[in-house]
């Protein structure tokens, strides 16, 4: 198989296991798709249940198979020369005859989603990639009404920045990291599994979500302390509550952090004062702390609330230069860039004055 075809198939596989919307999958050209080696590759890598124990949900697999077969039927001009692989038709027949859960039931179920970060662009295999498998509930809210049961776009972009940017890697490598609003835990797991942090705490204000993070830590083989990866712990932390410097190590299993991460934590303007209050607590613990906040700018006024609250507390904000990759050129992970996503670096100048009544 030529390198160009292999590259197309690799991207298709990454999209498939990330459960990208079926209409957004990037299929090879029809002339390539209908060839026997390509059909065989697609079956072996996407639909062979014997080789893929953690397959996407059946309803998703069925939708993709229907699209694939439709594409193949369109591509095949002479049935005497080309045909659809029997294994693909058997897989389709099996799914069609299976009693699938309703759309409503399926929406309530957790699904395995794999996020892939290509490390070596010239390597079309998956062995050199950073992959994080997450069990997510994409269409329901948590018990507290938050959206932490899935991974959002800003987490994926911040992960890309930490993986591919030399500045981002230097910021966290060998450092103690604390993530606020960790949600399903993808970003913390990525840092612990691949980015050589000295230790990391994934925190959330919802105990249900914290338990979900623990499940995902186990899923990624990080449930035990090992020299092969960084120590990752979980913690419940509600924004706005005081943080005790004396008991910090006992409470969170890590010394005072060097870096705080937050992704998609600015969607609710009414929660921003509590978020900034927590940042202030961390700066009091470590004035040299660096904070990275990734935010999808859905509402300019909401994000201005964060900026204004930070400035009132004497924090310095700097927009991180990290260009968004157009969706049709993304190689993983895959995410919408509409509305736009930004990454901000927040620090505290040494001589800044912090008004304790700013919030």
UniProtKB/TrEMBL annotation:
Organism of derivation: Clohesyomyces aquaticus
Pfam families for the chain: Methyltransf_16 (PF10294)
Keyword DNA repair in annotation: no
InterPro entries referenced in this protein's UniProt entry, alphabetically: Methyltransf_16 (IPR019410), SAM-dependent_MTases_sf (IPR029063)
Gene3D superfamilies associated with the record: Vaccinia Virus protein VP39
GO MF terms, alphabetically ordered: S-adenosylmethionine-dependent methyltransferase activity
Keyword annotations: Methyltransferase, Transferase
Name under which the protein is recorded: Putative methyltransferase-domain-containing protein
BP GO annotations: methylation
Cellular component GO terms, alphabetical: cytoplasm
């Amino acid at each position: 198989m030529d390198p160009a075809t292999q590259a197309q198939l690799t991207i298709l596989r990454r999209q498939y296991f990330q459960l990208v919307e079926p209409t957004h999958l990037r299929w090879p050209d029809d002339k390539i798709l209908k060839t026997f080696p390509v059909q065989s590759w697609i079956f072996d890598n996407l639909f062979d249940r014997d080789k893929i124990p953690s397959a996407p949900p059946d309803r998703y697999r069925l939708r993709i198979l229907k699209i694939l077969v439709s594409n193949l039927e369109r591509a095949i001009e002479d049935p005497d020369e080309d045909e659809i692989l029997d294994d693909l038709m058997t897989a389709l027949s099996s799914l069609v005859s299976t009693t699938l859960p309703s759309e409503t039931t399926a929406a309530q179920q957790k699904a395995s989603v794999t996020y892939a970060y290509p490390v070596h662009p010239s390597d079309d295999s998956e062995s050199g990639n950073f992959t994080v498998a997450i069990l997510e509930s994409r269409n329901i809210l948590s018990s507290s009404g938050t959206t932490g049961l899935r991974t959002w776009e800003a987490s994926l972009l911040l992960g890309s920045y930490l993986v591919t940017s030399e500045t981002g890697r230097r910021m966290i490598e060998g450092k103690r990291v604390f993530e606020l609003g960790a949600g399903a835990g993808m970003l913390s797991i990525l840092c612990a599994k691949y980015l050589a942090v000295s230790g990391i705490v994934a925190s959330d204000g919802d105990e249900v979500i914290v338990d979900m993070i623990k499940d995902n830590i186990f899923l990624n083989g990080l449930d035990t302390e090992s020299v092969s990866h960084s120590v990752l712990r979980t913690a419940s932390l509600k924004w706005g509550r005081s943080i005790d410097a004396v008991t910090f190590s006992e409470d969170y299993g890590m010394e005072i952090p060097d870096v705080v991460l937050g992704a998609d934590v600015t969607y609710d303007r009414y929660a921003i004062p509590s978020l900034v209050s927590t940042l202030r607590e961390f700066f009091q613990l470590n004035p040299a702390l660096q904070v990275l906040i990734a935010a999808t700018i859905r509402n300019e006024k909401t994000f201005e609330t964060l900026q204004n609250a930070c400035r009132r507390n004497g924090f310095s904000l700097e927009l991180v230069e990290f260009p968004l990759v157009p969706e049709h050129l993304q190689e993983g992970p895959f995410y919408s860039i509409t509305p736009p996503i930004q990454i901000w670096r927040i620090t505290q100048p040494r001589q800044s004055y912090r008004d304790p009544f700013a919030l």
